[in-house]
């Protein structure tokens, strides 16, 4: 695999700026990763670390000016860490070593280095996150997995993971519903490739079709509809925009798991989908983040 040279930096952001801040950062860097930096006594996240990765050395003055403008709109001061090169390496191998093993309900999400640590009573999901978002550490991923575990009494034959990232939710769905065929898409070609690789790595490559799609626009997504289960861990505004596409592509009695938004955005997300005839089954809370489980019936 080709070795690549990358550059990195980070800054801290208050919880009040999330997740809207991520929308503004989306086009700024090759990848944007979010990690909890500080929590309060209620174990609610109050500050996040935003890691930015670039595939070239950005001009520091332009980068700082662009970030100053963005964070100013969200009401906090930028303190940018030093811009540093990441030594040339096999990026997937570096990421694999850095993936922190996580026990999430019946799942154990891990990198290659922790392959031998999977508990006997857990379903192991090995991820080589590469340049795609998704090592299981983010609360929205965990909220979706919680919601999915609550649906194991149902049967799903066709599953869509919309905005798949590194494929964790698609792989989890393939394990929870062995009879299901899973379509996993992302608007990032790197994410689609990494998802396909991770599906093979976890022994479910034959049941997961990964590809590139801007929401519901691709033939890959449309031709596999209607879906019994749709998983969409993205952001509030895209979820709201795509609500009108989701409803007609959902099978009768189908279920939707939505996440990627905080509590204050829940009424908007829920309202947009209720307007399309869906109703709430459950909501899951992970710190400030939320997941909604909806159905057609």
TrEMBL record:
<feature type="binding site">
    <location>
        <position position="163"/>
    </location>
    <ligand>
        <name>S-adenosyl-L-methionine</name>
    </ligand>
</feature>
<dbReference type="InterPro" id="IPR029063">
    <property type="entry name" value="SAM-dependent_MTases_sf"/>
</dbReference>
<dbReference type="GO" id="GO:0008276">
    <property type="term" value="F:protein methyltransferase activity"/>
</dbReference>
<feature type="binding site">
    <location>
        <position position="186"/>
    </location>
    <ligand>
        <name>S-adenosyl-L-methionine</name>
    </ligand>
</feature>
<dbReference type="InterPro" id="IPR004498">
    <property type="entry name" value="Ribosomal_PrmA_MeTrfase"/>
</dbReference>
<comment type="similarity">
    <text>Belongs to the methyltransferase superfamily. PrmA family.</text>
</comment>
<keyword id="KW-0687">Ribonucleoprotein</keyword>
<keyword id="KW-0949">S-adenosyl-L-methionine</keyword>
<keyword id="KW-0808">Transferase</keyword>
<comment type="function">
    <text>Methylates ribosomal protein L11.</text>
</comment>
<keyword id="KW-0489">Methyltransferase</keyword>
<protein>
    <recommendedName>
        <fullName>Ribosomal protein L11 methyltransferase</fullName>
        <ecNumber>2.1.1.-</ecNumber>
    </recommendedName>
</protein>
<feature type="binding site">
    <location>
        <position position="141"/>
    </location>
    <ligand>
        <name>S-adenosyl-L-methionine</name>
    </ligand>
</feature>
<dbReference type="GO" id="GO:0005840">
    <property type="term" value="C:ribosome"/>
</dbReference>
<dbReference type="InterPro" id="IPR050078">
    <property type="entry name" value="Ribosomal_L11_MeTrfase_PrmA"/>
</dbReference>
<keyword id="KW-0963">Cytoplasm</keyword>
<dbReference type="Pfam" id="PF06325">
    <property type="entry name" value="PrmA"/>
</dbReference>
<dbReference type="GO" id="GO:0032259">
    <property type="term" value="P:methylation"/>
</dbReference>
<keyword id="KW-0689">Ribosomal protein</keyword>
<feature type="binding site">
    <location>
        <position position="233"/>
    </location>
    <ligand>
        <name>S-adenosyl-L-methionine</name>
    </ligand>
</feature>
<dbReference type="GO" id="GO:0005737">
    <property type="term" value="C:cytoplasm"/>
</dbReference>
